[in-house]
Recover the amino acids of this structure.
């Protein structure tokens, strides 16, 4: 098990999102991903293509002037060919002088494909949020998807 490569694959999702480098994000996701933000938005987990996840993020994240994700405290386990990681995450989002911060943990699973390690399960476990909780809606309203 190459723990450094596993952590790099995961952190590339967050760095790519902050950089709006969608290829970097895509290269870390499997073709199909079980995406679960139910603890934050109440919607059930859903299997989406990596392209659909990125399309949704393109219609949300660029609505912020800046986002900054910090991930740490990685625990990585591999059992019977399944690689899992649990880690802490904090995301700061800014529009003008307003900010919204979300904190929680993540549980992800990775598979090995012909293209290397890929995240195929991505679950966020909300612990708290602070700041302007209306900022996400403002970001959606001002975001224009890239052409």
């Amino acid at each position: 098990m190459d723990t450094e490569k596993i952590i790099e694959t995961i952190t590339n999702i967050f760095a790519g999102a902050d950089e709006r480098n969608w290829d970097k994000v895509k290269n870390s996701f499997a073709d199909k991903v079980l995406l679960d933000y139910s603890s934050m938005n109440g919607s059930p987990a859903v299997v989406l293509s990596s392209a659909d996840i990125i399309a949704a993020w393109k219609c949300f994240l660029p609505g912020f002037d800046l986002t900054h994700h910090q991930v740490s405290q990685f625990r990585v386990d591999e059992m019977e060919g399944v690689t899992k990681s649990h880690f802490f995450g904090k995301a700061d989002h800014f529009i003008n002088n307003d900010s919204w911060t979300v904190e929680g943990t993540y549980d992800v699973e990775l598979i090995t494909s012909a293209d290397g390690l890929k995240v195929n399960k991505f679950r966020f476990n909300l612990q708290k949020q602070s700041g302007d909780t209306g900022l996400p809606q403002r970001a959606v309203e001002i975001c224009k998807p890239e052409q």
Observations:
- The chain has a mean pLDDT of 94.
- Residues 83 and 110 are 5 Å apart (CA to CA).
- The chain has five helices and six strands.
- The helical segments are 3-19, 22-26, 38-41, 50-58, 135-142.
